[in-house]
Amino acid sequence: MTPQPERRARLVVYVASVHGAGKTRRLLEDARRMREGGRRVLIGWAQTKGRPDVERAAADLPRLSPRLARVGDATLEDFDYATALREKPDIVILDELAHENVGDAVHAKRWQDALALREAGIGVIGALDIEHVETVAPAATELLGRRVLEIVPLSFLQSADEIIALDVSPEILRSRASGETVDEQTLSKLRELLLHTVDTLTLPAVQARKRSNATAFVYPGTEPLPFLRRSAAIAQALDLAFEVIGAPGVDPKTFEQPAFENGGEVLRRPMEPGTAVADALGSALVILPIGKIAARLANAPLASDLFIVGAGQTYLGENATGSPYSSTAGDRMRVGYGHLTVYIGPAAGSGTTFAMLDRAHQLAAEGVDVVAAFVDTHGRAETAAMLNGLEFLPPKLVVAGNGTSSEFDRDALVARRPKVALIDELAHTNAPGSIAPKRYQDVLAILREGIDVVTTLNVQQLEGLGDTVHRLTGLVVRETLPDGILALADEIILIDITPDALQQRLREGKIYLPEGAETALGTFFRRESLFARRELARREALRSRYRTRGSAPFERVLLSVGTRPLDVPMIRRASRIAARLAIEFAVAHVFEPSEREDREIVDALRTEARKTNADWIEACAADVPARLLEIARKRPETTIAVAGTHRKPRWPQTPSFARRLLDAGARELLVLVPPAAIKPDSR
User: Fold this and answer.
1) What is the per-residue pLDDT for 41?
2) Is residue 566 very low, low, confident or very high in pLDDT (cuts 50, 70, 90)?
3) How far, in Å, CA of 526 to CA of 670, rounded?
4) 296: Cβ–Cβ under 8 A, 6 or more apart, which residues?
5) Structural domain 554-672, CATH architecture
6) Where in the chain do CATH 3.40.50.620 domains reside?
7) Which residue of 85, 155, 244, 636 is surrounded by the most CB atoms within 10 Å?
8) Spatial CA neighbour of 304 closest among 185, 190, 215, 390
9) Closest Cα to residue 16, out of 185, 217, 198?
10) Nearest alpha carbon to residue 331 among 491, 482, 447, 423
C-alpha cells in the first residue's frame, strides 16, 4: 500500500462582521465534516449559548474538558491548551480567538494558543469578529460606541493558512439578537470593513497575468487627489483591486494619503511606467497621465487595458446606478414589490443553495410562510436533506424538442402566494416554450406580485464581469444575467469559501459526479481560477454596499469602430464597462471617403450597438481622428474608447489609431485590449 503524504497542520480562521453571524455553527459543521472524513477532531472551545441549531451541530462531537481557573472569588472555565497538546488530535476547534485567557494560562491570548498548536502539528479551525482585528478596532470602537478591548494583531491573520469571510443578512442578525444589538447602518459599515480586510489578506498567489488589479502611476507634477479619485472610480466599478505606484522622482509621501482615502495600496518601489507596463504588472488596467510615455504605450501592443488621464482633469460624476430595470426599482414602494435577497458565491458548490435553504428554515421557525418554488439540489445529499420540512412546489415540465425539462412554475407560485419564495439559480436559461427566456425575468414577475424572493448566483454569471472572468480563467461563461438585476436586490450576501475547500468538495463528489470531477479540476476548478473568482465575489459583495450611487471619471464612453469584424465584440465589451460605471454609451463609425465599406460588417456593428442601447453615430471625414474629437466634444465629459493595436511600432509605418487620436488632441483615452482571436487590420 502506498503511504499517504503527511498532512501539514493548518490554521483556518473565520472572520465575521458581528456577533450572531453564525461563526460557532460554521465551526461545528466543519468539525462534523472533518470527522466524517476520518480526521480526529476535538472541540477545544465553542459555546452553543442554548441555540437549538448550534446544539444539533455540536451533538456527539468530542470535547476537551475546560481548564478551571480561579479569578478572585470566582472559578472560570477556559480552553485547556496543555490537555490539547497531550491529546494530539488532528484538529482543534477554537471559537473566540480574540479572547484573553484567564488564570495561570500558558499564553495570554487564545490566538497565541492557536499558533502554538499549529506549530506542534495540530490543525486549528477558529473564529473571531472583525472588530477585534487591530487595524479595524479603532473604527469599530467609534461605530459601536464602546471600546473594543480584546485585540488580535493583523500579523496573526497574515500567518493563517486560510481566512474566510462570514457575511450575514441584517434580518438573520435581528432574529438572533441577544444582548448588544447593532443598527443597520453600523452593521453595513462592519460588513464593509470585513470584506475590505479579508480581500486585502487573501490576495491569491497566482500567475501575475491572472491578477485582477488596476495600477495607477503618479508622475511628477500630477495632482494626486483628483487623479487617484478618478482612477479608483473606474477600478471599483470593474471590481479591480487598486494599486498606486510612483514614477521615479515622486516621493510616495505625496500620494500615500490620497491613495489610502480611495482604497488604494501603495507599492513603494518607484517604477518607470514604460518599463513596468512592458511586463504588464499583472494588471487588468493601467492608468497614467497623458504624456510621452502614455503616447508610446498607446502605439504598442499591450496585455492590459490603458486609461490615459488628461492633465488637470478633475471630473468625477456621482451617478445613480443605472439599470434597464431601474423604473421597476423606483416603483417598488408605490406598488408593493417584494424584496429580493441574493446569495452570491465564487463557483458552483460554494454553498449558496444550502445557505438559502438554511435561511428558509429560520424563517419558517419564526412563522413566516415560505415555499421552495424551485431548488436544484444537483444530486447533493446535504442540500437535498435541507429540503426536509419545507413546502416545495413541483416543477413544471416543459417539452423542448425531443426532451423534457423541469422548470420553475411561475403560475403555480403566484396562485400559492407565499410571503417568501426560494428560487434557485437566478441566471438560469429557461427551456424553449417557457413563459420567459430567463429565470431572472420570472423573478422580476414574482417581485411585482409582492412576493419576497431569495435566490442564488455565482459571480461569473454577471454579464459585466464576462471579460474579467475570461481574462482570469480563460473560460467563457454562457449562462449570464445583466448586472442591473443586482441593483434591485435588497440584500446581497456573500458565501465565502476557499479554493482548497471547493476542490475537496469536488473530489468528494459533492459538486459534480465523480467522473466529471477530474475534468473540472483541470478547467473551471483550477486553483488559480477559484482564487480569482473568490476575489470577484468579495468585491461584488462589497460593491453592492455602494450600489445606490456610483462614481465615474466621465459621463459618456464613445467607442470608435472601424469596418472590422473585430469591433463587434468590442461594442459588447465597451457597453459592459459603461454599464458598470452607470454612464451613457455611444458608438461612432467614422470612415474616410476613400475607404471601401463592407456594408455587411457595418450592419452587424449597427445591430450590435442597438442591442446594447447605444447611440449609433456614422460619419465620413478625410481626417478621422479630428472628426471623432469633434463628435466627442459635443457632449461634455466624453472619453473616447478604442481597440488597442496588435502590431509592434516600426518606422516609418503609420502610428496606431490610439496614438493618432492622442496626436490629434484627445485629452483622455481608454485603450482596450482587442479580442486575441481576431487580428485587427492596419488601422
Assistant:
1) 95
2) confident
3) 32
4) 274
5) 3-Layer(aba) Sandwich (3.40)
6) 208-319, 554-672
7) 244
8) 215
9) 198
10) 447
Classify domain 326-496+538-544 at the CATH superfamily level: P-loop containing nucleotide triphosphate hydrolases (3.40.50.300)
Question: Alpha-carbon distance 408 to 416, whole Å?
Answer: 13
Q: What is the pLDDT of residues 430-470, one digit of tens each?
A: 998 889 999 999 999 999 999 999 999 999 999 888 877 77
- Cα separation, 588 vs 581, in Å, equals 19
Is the peptide bond preceding residue 289 cis, with omega within 30 degrees of 0?
Answer: no
In which residue ranges of the chain is CATH 3.40.50.300 found? 11-181, 326-496+538-544
- Sequence length of the chain is 683
Domain 208-319: CATH architecture, name and number where available: 3-Layer(aba) Sandwich (3.40)
CB under 8 Å to 511, separation ≥6 — which residues? 348, 349, 378, 380, 502, 505, 517, 520
**Which grid coordinates are listed for 72?**
478572585
Return d(Cα 266, Cα 260) in angstroms, integer.
Answer: 8
> Which of 627, 571, 665 has the alpha carbon at shortest distance from 618?
627
Give the bridge partners for 128, in sequence order. Answer: 15
Strands (E), 199-295: 213-218, 241-246, 265-267, 285-289
Q: What is the mean pLDDT of residues 3-18?
A: 76
CATH of domain 11-181: 3.40.50.300
Q: What is the DSSP letter of 146?
A: S
How buried is residue 291: exposed, middle or buried, by Cβ count under 10 Å (0-12/13-18/19+)? middle
**Nearest CA-CA partner of 136 in 201, 197, 202:** 197
The residues facing 542 across adjacent strands are none
DSSP 424: -
Q: How far apart are CA 215 and CA 313, in angstroms?
A: 18
pTM for the model? 0.77
3-state secondary structure of 280: helix
Contact 167/18 with Cβ under 8 angstroms?
no
